[in-house]
UniProtKB/TrEMBL annotation:
It comes from Gracilibacillus oryzae. PANTHER family: CONSERVED VIRULENCE FACTOR B. Residues 151-211 form the S1 motif domain. The lineage of its organism: Bacteria, Bacillati, Bacillota, Bacilli, Bacillales. Belongs to the CvfB family. SUPFAM superfamilies: Nucleic acid-binding proteins (SSF50249). Pfam families: CvfB_1st (PF21191), CvfB_2nd (PF21543), S1_2 (PF13509), WHD_CvfB (PF17783). This is S1 motif domain-containing protein. One of its GO terms (molecular function) is nucleic acid binding.
Amino acid sequence: MNNQIGTIQILEVLREIETGYVLEGDILLHHNETDTELEAEQSVDVFLYQDKKGQTVATTQLPAIQINVYGWAEVVEVLPHLGVFVNIGTTKEILLSKDELPLFENVWPTAGDKVYISLGRDRKGRLLALPATEIVFERELFEEAPDDLLNANVTGRIYRTDREGSVCITEEGYRGFIHHTERKEEPRLGELVEGRVIEVKEDGTLNVSLRPLKQHSMGEDADMILARLEESNGVIPFSDKSDPEDIRGTFNISKAAFKRALGKLMKERKIEQRDGKTYLV
């Protein structure tokens, strides 16, 4: 029955033993894996998996996630040398291998985050979690966003992340792209984020920003610049004439946002600019 591991099967009870029940195929259903008393010749729905010894065993806890059946699974443990373990709704937690996770561990999911997965089997028949592809999301979850969502607040779960940007699926099923300029830090895979719709595209997908509105972000950016000045003995080698990429690489904000923050601080007479540098007054 190795080829049925990771699926739900209807099996007949052959006999009861001290530790549980023996099902057809000599599969053990342990007492801890069922809350129902069973009798010989009774049929029972079970989910099949392998125990630590590599034996095929059964549980009456039936997960929504199976081989080729996708669903959201919560991360319960992170092991850097292996990956993350997820809860699919049974007593057995399933490994999502580090090979399926982002290159940098700082954007790996942490406990409580959720990933959209199905199950697969390795060469030894052990169950593994497999993340859904873009095609799967499009087939199973995506909805077309209405035109009136511009500037609306949305909540979404990150399902892909890289240097160019992050992609989320909102609670309503809309696909949202978050460009790297619209986030102060890169969200984790599986993280639940709140953002603002800045564009509704013709194909029904969204562009989303995780940054606050300009009037709100200006104060945050100004505080960040002041903190950098205090850490740098009152001077930083940046001004409103600095290269946009240098500003982005150091402060992770646009040159326009940097200039707005500098203007606010100069108006408050907290800084001054000389010779391409900014000084704390």
